[in-house]
Design brief:
single chain, about 280 residues, alpha/beta, Rossmann fold, nine-stranded mixed sheet, two-stranded antiparallel sheet, 11 strands, about 45% helix, globular, AB_hydrolase_1, hydrolase, hydrolase activity, AB_hydrolase_fold
Amino acid sequence: MRTLQIMDRLSWHWIAVDGRTAHYGTGGDGRPLLFLHGWGLTDRTYAASLHHLVSAGLRVYAPALPGFGGTADLPADRRNLRGYGDWVAAFAEAAGIAGPVTLVGHSFGGGVAIRVAHDHPDLVARLVLVNSIGGSSWSNGRGVLRAIAERPLWDWGLHLQADLRPTREIARVLPVILRDAIPNVLLSPAAVWRVAHLARTADLTPELAELKARRLPVVIVWSKDDSVIGEAALLSLRTGLGEPEVVTVPGRHAWLLADPRRFGEVITNIIGLAEDTEGVA
């Protein structure tokens, strides 16, 4: 394992996972938190946001998922959400992550986090889904609910573009997104578009039902102006999980990049409340 540099109190490393190169950031001391990034981005994209978790006394691990940020792609027969979930479990073992973690996933990373919690229950103490994929429904332009698998690529792309329309918020975050997204597209175009398809069509209803049956602690975080993961997808995700707590914040799909401090406060509050409840129990 080779350390590259320290930025925002995170150190960046290369590590072998299942015999393939992987990149990740880590920092801090305390209870472990594993963060999974969104589509087209990398571990480094979230450095400023993760810094606030490190400062709050958490031990943060943030891998670049396969096909992104220099991490080698998955074998051809493992390029699905289950394969990504298994890779995360293998990464945790390779990185020496001890004990069950708070698992936080943003967007596509939320879908991967659901698979990790479903397939590797001993790894996950609680699940935090931030503007996550995995719900079974979407609403078309006429307000009609449809199965998520029927959502056309053009609709997903249109709302993704709308989420990035010029505002003061986007002016702060767009350079960071482009810095990491463009190299991913240039270096791993097949992985980028394959994961886009997974994110656009993911219906994790059976996995959500199993997590509900296990009573895994889950909190959903959603931003009220998210046009990528709309309210219909949020509601179906919540229903599938048995109506867990939803924390609603201002902002769009990438709000945690635009407002790192708020992200740190939201996540540490969730963990703090959970620990208070455990202490009472």
